[in-house]
Amino acid sequence: MNLPSIVDGEHADRKLAELIYFPTGGGKTEAYLGLIAFTLLLRRIRGQGTAHEGRGVAVLLRYTLRLLTLDQLGRAATLMCALEELRRRNPQELGNARFTVGLWVGASASANRLKDVHQALTDYTPGRTDSPFPLTTCPWCGEAIKIQNIKLVDDDGKPTKKNFARAAVYCDGGACLYTEAKVPGLGLPVLFVDEQIYEEVPSFIVATVDKFAMMPWRGDAGMLFGRATHLDDNRAYGVMESAPARARPLPEGLLPPELIVQDELHLISGPLGTMVGLYEAAVDYLCEHPIGGPPSTEGHLLDGHGAEGARADPGTLRPTDEPLPAARDPRRRQLLLTGAPRRARTALRRRRRPRPRASRRIGPHLRAAARGRAKALQQERRSKAAGRSVHDARRLLQQPARARGHAAPGRGRGAQPRARHRGGEEAAALRRAASVGGEPKARDAGGAHIAASRPSD
Questions:
Q1: Pairing of strands 296-299, 259-262
Q2: Range of 314's domain?
Q3: Residue 453 half-sphere exposure, CB side, CA atoms within 13 Å?
Q4: 422-457 tens-digit pLDDT
Q5: Number of domain units in the chain
Q6: Are 72 and 219 in a shared domain?
Q7: Do residues 264 and 334 share a domain?
Q8: For residue 168, what are the β-bridge partners?
Q9: Which residues, in sequence order, are CB contacts of 84 under 8 Å at separation 6+?
Q10: In a domain, 119, yes or no
């Protein structure tokens, strides 16, 4: 059903989003992996003899959760190993550049820079189980990937600890096709470092939806959408860097992604769905090309109203006057993606103003002075509070008993207060005075002073 729109760039179905609705374990992943393989091979065949050679990101596979992304990366890597083996057997039809898959997620799951991988390899000690490489086994033969199999190499493919250009992961299996002896300097066709992904521009990107939020802040992200100026046998160059003399110019850049697969669509809801919808318009615009827009495949919409082969027009991606269908119409389902708000451009432009350099230089002195002043004020408040407590206790004890007490119930206005009530006030005054270090004198019922005595040692 999707093959005609993949082959024909002017096909009407390129404006539709194909929806795969099927229970868990029914083969949805295998279905879109087959479509991805067809797309990658077709682009390479058509790209022979052109400046871009059919290279660049052709497929975007997006997930909502990083754990799901890492789980599906193994299947995607197995597919790329098979395509790479086909390319090595038919370089005349599929080109000299290898097929690769790139893991584009947050720094907690994959490294952003090659020096982060170098630091992880340097700090590794026996007994640790963590690894900068996201896969634990070889996607081709199933052999365990050890930390010793991850190496940093230079432009010539030789291991180095200083001028490394990319990370290569090899397999130790003797019969595997991706050992260091068989593919020196390359290794498995899996890119897991953001810096290397921007340079080599893999054919297939596995990402999370939140990673696209960094597009406005990272210029190198444009390389994933064909914004390249030069190309050589190993990598591509964009506007963020200068290309060497050996690189070939790209008058029209690389081709943008042709297929977007959104897996686990039912998880895009709430605030996450709002953010995804905000960047969906930008992704759709970056994928535009004169040959036609990218077709989309949405998966796993579990709402109880889907139908086999259901199609939906993503009306929020482009303005349309077509009315929305009924909310519970089983014949058609609308994929509702929240569009960008009116003031989204203003929100994206907001940046925190940097402080002037002068304030940064005198900042420590100002902070030290402020801390000293705050400490002095705190001590002053404590002293005043202690003085007020002593003064209040002394004034209370010096008042006559009639003024200090209250008339007992059932007695006249001039009646003396009860002893227990008067004694309670005096005891409270003594406790307050003792808390601040004072020792006021109490009075008896007749007004004579009673010295506060303390037990002998």
A1: parallel
A2: 3-110+193-319+329-342
A3: 5
A4: 455 556 665 665 555 544 444 444 444 444 444 444
A5: 2
A6: yes
A7: yes
A8: 151
A9: 98, 99, 100, 189
A10: no
